[in-house]
């Protein structure tokens, strides 16, 4: 061969898509292809395949395997003369190395691709049964199966059938194969066959008529006794037949295996009997089946064995399938199942996972099945086991928008085509997009992408998964808006009844009201309505993920009514992804945060900072600076305190919103795993805010009544949870007031001034207004309610020296100056330190007194009718138990251990552990119980809008508390069990450390 000729051939090969032109030249020069090497038809046909190099190599192997020159000549002549054979055979050889191997082992099987009659274009079960009929053993069945598979693959790669038709043919071939395998099993055990009736029910993709090239074939077996046979014996016989049939298909022989037959979708899974009677199946599904098991039955279809029994099975179970959507937490269960699937994908594979990954095939299938189960109850046209048929029916009925259905159909077909071609190459079960460049090139070319196959493939794949990710949630909610919107003539829409069904399935208790809200929000032709129609499908999903979707939607309508005319509001929700989801979480998590927001809806802007900075709590110094500046601008004390309370309301909303978002998690921000950090964040933020508010109120009152200087120095001492930086949303501010007359001021004048300051502060902070009141509780002062509201420092010193009781020393453990004269506050702390950290610790009499007081409190202060085990404050293992235990350690050892000299419970507990005063496990148990009880109290306030120390009794409120604590729908009982378990362990530690048991 001349150098010029070689160069010309080499170039032609590259132009026709060969990647290794040198190897291709050598193969074309081989003796097997000598007669046709210069035929342009062959080169054109090879260049049209997915992988010309692979196709040429497979063709040479097939020619080499022919039994002689005559057979080789026959193949080549037919190949050149008959375009249908040429396209089919080379198409398969260029797409499937595994089928090329089969042809090399069975060199006459190419003849199965020669016939091109109309009946060969779309064969069904009967044609495949004919193709398998002569298989007398498992090995022969495999060969015949591959021969049939060869014809399916040929029609697929040539475009004679589309992806849906290919999947249906693969399911029909599986049906014929199961029947042939069962026939072989019955022939091997005629006695067993005679003793029973056995039906094989296809499930999953086989049942849905949408099988892959390589997939487990999911089945369920139903058995009954033949006439006159013993049922137990018949079931044993049926089990033997079923097991043998599974082995015939699954076991590896010299011809490999066909596919695994998987019966794990049966009742009780692999722990249940392989074969059950129909009545046993019914009993299981009536009593024990989970939601996903009814979802799986959508695709149940009798395929082999006794046809009458198979039909009886489907007829008996079908009514249960279409009632599944009436089960509690139906939508949540289905969505949770989907999330669990995604969570179990290895991180290294999730971006290549075609089937299970986000935006993959399973997203389409789950969304379609969810809609079928909701609306198939009343619309029998939706009851198809085939995903694309069901999607078409949903669109035709208005259950899915037509444009959305078209996009999903296109995406699903493309992703299934990718999956088919990936599996076809090696006939291996995989759903991972390959990483190798050559594999990606072959895959792209097999899908008709020829210019730049790899780049085009990746782009189209990502585009389609993006469409699915965007639509699969929206699919459920968009038609709810169309049901209340003005649609174009002829456009199908959800009926009012269908919309009601869907809202009920989502957990809306009042679907009619929800539809009214949707209509008010989304109807009309304004820009506002258009943006709402874009936002609401996603928001409805987030509302449905809460315990009270109705409240979420109602609150969203209220906020939108208040802010809808402001240009920034809808722009914020539309353009900042975090804002819309944060708002949905906040509006549906309970009453407190929405109530705070409704009083000044512009605070919704806090939710919009994409990096979460908008919800970060502000420090005390920053808050005090803002409040004091607002007070300074006010004309009088009332206006100044009104401004301070407005800041407080906004910051309470910021704190509550951040707490909800951190507790619920969002699509971009996972749930905060450290529950203690959540408690500390809320306690610190609310305590700092309360201190700043009191500082501003004090400044306003003094300035209004006395100008720049009050006749007496004045300080507010935080006590209890306030002093401990542990305030909750519903906590009062426990304080004591201290003053000291300025030089030259009479004691009476100073006392009167201090008393007026206290009275005016309390009044102004409780004036009814749009802002929540701040209640000041001074009951921890000397002599309690019987004593004066405010005392001089000298009066405190005299009282504590003469009359102080041990409980007052205990209360002073939380004392910390929060507002007013810093120097006076410092001196007050110096005064009380010897009382709260007594030298050499508490005496035994004092310890006995504290224990007696605690025991009396437990018996007398618990509200009548309350369940002690669920009372977060006074119940066993609750807040009081932990705090008194920690405080006793502080009173006994604070003089010697500086770390114990803190007002904060968790800090003191950690210091006690560090000092060796309790063990690691004991400290962890007490900390866990204290954090949990505090979280419950915060949750109750967030959910109910008012403080409470026990779990709510109303089911929706209880579910909302559970959601805040991380429990899904239907798991309120688990939450209560966990609370009892945690506090029971804490009480055991308290008995030992506090009571010395």
What does this protein look like?
The chain is mostly helical. It is built from 44 helices and ten strands. The strands form two sheets. Strands 1, 2, 3, 4 and 5 form a five-stranded mixed sheet that branches. Strands 6, 7, 8, 9 and 10 form a five-stranded mixed sheet that branches. Strand 7 (733-741), helix 35 and strand 8 (776-777) form a beta-alpha-beta unit. Helix 4 (52-65) packs parallel to helix 7, helix 27 (549-563) crosses helix 29 (577-588) and helix 29 (577-588) crosses helix 32. It is elongated and about 130 Å long. It starts with a helix and ends with a helix. Residues 1-5 have low confidence and may be disordered.
Could you list some keywords that capture this structure?
elongated, 997 residues, mainly alpha
Average pLDDT taken over every residue: 91
Q: What is the alpha-carbon Rg in Å?
A: 38 Å
How many DSSP E strands? 10
Structural class, please? mainly alpha
SS element count, helices = 44
Approximate strand percentage: 5-15%
Biggest beta sheet attributes: 5 strands, mixed
Distance between the termini: 103 Å
Uncertain residue ranges: 1-5
Helix content: 55-70%
Which of globular, elongated, flat, extended, rod-shaped describes the shape? elongated
């Amino acid at each position: 061969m001349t150098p010029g000729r070689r160069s010309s051939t080499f170039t032609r090969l590259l132009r026709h898509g060969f990647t290794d032109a040198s190897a291709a030249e050598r193969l074309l020069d081989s003796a097997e292809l000598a007669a046709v090497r210069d035929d342009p038809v062959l080169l054109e046909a090879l260049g049209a395949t997915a992988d010309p190099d692979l196709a040429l190599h497979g063709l040479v192997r097939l020619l080499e395997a022919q039994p002689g020159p005559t057979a080789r000549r026959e193949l080549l002549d037919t190949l050149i003369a008959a375009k249908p054979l040429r396209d089919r055979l080379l198409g398969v050889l260029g797409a499937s190395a595994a089928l090329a191997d089969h042809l090399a082992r069975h060199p006459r099987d190419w003849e199965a691709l020669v016939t091109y009659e109309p009946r060969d274009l779309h064969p069904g079960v009967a044609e495949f049964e004919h193709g398998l009929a002569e298989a007398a053993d498992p090995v022969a069945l495999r060969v015949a199966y591959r021969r049939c598979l060869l014809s399916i693959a040929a029609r697929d790669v040539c475009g004679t059938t589309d992806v849906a038709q290919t999947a249906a043919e693969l399911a029909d071939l599986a049906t014929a194969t199961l029947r042939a395998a069962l026939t072989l099993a019955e022939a091997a055990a005629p006695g067993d066959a005679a003793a029973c009736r056995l039906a094989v029910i296809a499930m999953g993709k086989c049942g849905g008529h949408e099988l892959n090239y390589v997939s487990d074939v999911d089945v369920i077996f139903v058995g009954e006794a033949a006439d006159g046979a013993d049922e137990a014996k018949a079931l044993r016989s049926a089990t033997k037949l079923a097991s043998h049939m599974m082995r015939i298909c699954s076991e590896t022989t010299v011809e490999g295996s066909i596919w695994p037959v998987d019966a794990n979708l049966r009742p009780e899974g692999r722990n249940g009997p392989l074969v059950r009677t129909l009545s046993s199946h019914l009993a299981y599904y009536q009593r024990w089946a989970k939601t996903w098991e009814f979802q799986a039955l959508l695709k149940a279809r009798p395929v082999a064995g006794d046809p009458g029994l198979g039909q009886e099975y489907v007829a008996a179970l079908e009514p249960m399938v279409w009632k599944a959507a009436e089960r509690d937490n139906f939508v949540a269960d289905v969505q949770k199942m989907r999330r669990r699937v995604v969570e179990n994908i290895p991180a290294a594979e999730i971006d290549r996972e075609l089937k299970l990954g986000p935006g993959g095939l399973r997203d389409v299938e789950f969304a379609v099945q969810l809609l079928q189960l909701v609306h198939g109850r009343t619309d029998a046209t939706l009851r198809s086991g085939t995903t694309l048929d069901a999607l078409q029916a949903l669109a035709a009925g208005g259950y899915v928008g037509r444009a959305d259905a078209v996009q999903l159909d296109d995406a699903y077909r493309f992703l299934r085509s990718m999956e088919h071609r990936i599996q076809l190459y090696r006939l291996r079960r995989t759903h991972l997009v390959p990483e190798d460049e050559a594999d990606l090139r072959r895959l792209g070319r097999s899908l008709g992408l020829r210019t730049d196959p790899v780049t085009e493939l990746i782009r189209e794949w990502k585009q389609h998964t993006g469409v699915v990710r965007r639509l699969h949630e929206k699919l459920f909610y968009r038609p709810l808006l169309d049901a209340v919107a003005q649609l174009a003539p002829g456009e199908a829409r959800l009926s009012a009844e269908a919309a009601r069904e869907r809202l009920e399935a989502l957990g809306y208790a009042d679907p009619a009201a929800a539809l009214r809200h949707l209509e008010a929000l989304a109807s009309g032709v304004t820009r506002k309505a258009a943006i709402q129609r874009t936002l609401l499908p996603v928001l409805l999903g987030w509302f449905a993920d809460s315990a009270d979707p109705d409240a979420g939607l109602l609150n969203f309508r209220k906020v939108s009514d208040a802010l809808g005319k402001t240009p920034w509001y809808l722009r914020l929700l539309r353009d900042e992804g975090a804002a819309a989801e944060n708002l949905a979480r906040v509006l549906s998590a309970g009453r407190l945060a929405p109530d705070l927001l409704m009083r000044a809806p512009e605070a919704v802007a806090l939710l919009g900072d994409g990096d979460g900075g908008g919800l970060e709590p502000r420090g005390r110094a920053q808050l005090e600076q803002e409040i004091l500046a607002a007070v300074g601008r006010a004309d009088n004390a009332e206006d100044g305190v009104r401004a301070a309370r407005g800041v407080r309301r906004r910051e309470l909303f910021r704190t509550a919103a951040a707490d909800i978002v951190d507790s619920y998690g969002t699509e971009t921000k996972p749930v905060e795993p450290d529950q203690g950090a959540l408690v500390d964040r809320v306690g610190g933020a609310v305590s700092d805010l309360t201190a700043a508010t009191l500082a501003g109120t004090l400044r306003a009152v003094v300035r209004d009544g006395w100008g720049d200087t009050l006749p007496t120095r004045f300080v507010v001492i935080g006590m209890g949870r306030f002093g401990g930086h542990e305030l909750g949303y519903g906590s009062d501010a426990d304080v004591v007031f201290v003053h000291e007359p300025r030089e030259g001021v009479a004691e009476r004048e100073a006392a009167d001034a201090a008393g007026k300051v206290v009275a005016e502060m309390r009044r102004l902070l409780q004036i009814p207004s749009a802002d929540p009141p701040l209640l000041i509780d001074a009951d921890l002062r000397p002599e309690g309610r019987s004593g004066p509201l405010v005392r001089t420092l000298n009066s405190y010193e005299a009282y504590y020296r003469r009359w102080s009781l041990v409980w007052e020393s205990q209360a002073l453990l939380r004392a910390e100056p929060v507002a007013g004269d810093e120097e006076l506050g410092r001196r007050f702390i110096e005064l009380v330190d010897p009382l709260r950290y007594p030298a050499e610790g508490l005496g035994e009499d004092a310890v006995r007194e504290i224990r007696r007081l605690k025991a009396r409190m437990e018996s007398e202060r618990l509200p009548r009718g309350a369940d002690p085990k669920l009372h977060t404050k006074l119940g066993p293992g609750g807040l009081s138990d932990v705090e008194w235990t920690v405080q006793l350690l502080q009173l006994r050892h604070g003089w010697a251990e500086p770390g114990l000299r803190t007002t904060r419970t968790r800090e003191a507990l950690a210091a006690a552990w560090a000092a060796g005063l309790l063990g690691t496990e004991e400290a962890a148990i007490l900390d866990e119980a204290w954090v949990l009880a505090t979280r419950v109290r915060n949750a109750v306030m967030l959910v109910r809008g008012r403080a409470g120390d026990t779990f709510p009794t109303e089911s929706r409120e209880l579910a909302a508390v559970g959601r805040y604590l991380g429990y899904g729908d239907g798991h309120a009982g688990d939450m209560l069990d966990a609370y009892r378990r945690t506090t029971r362990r804490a009480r055991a530690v308290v008995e030992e450390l506090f009571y010395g048991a």
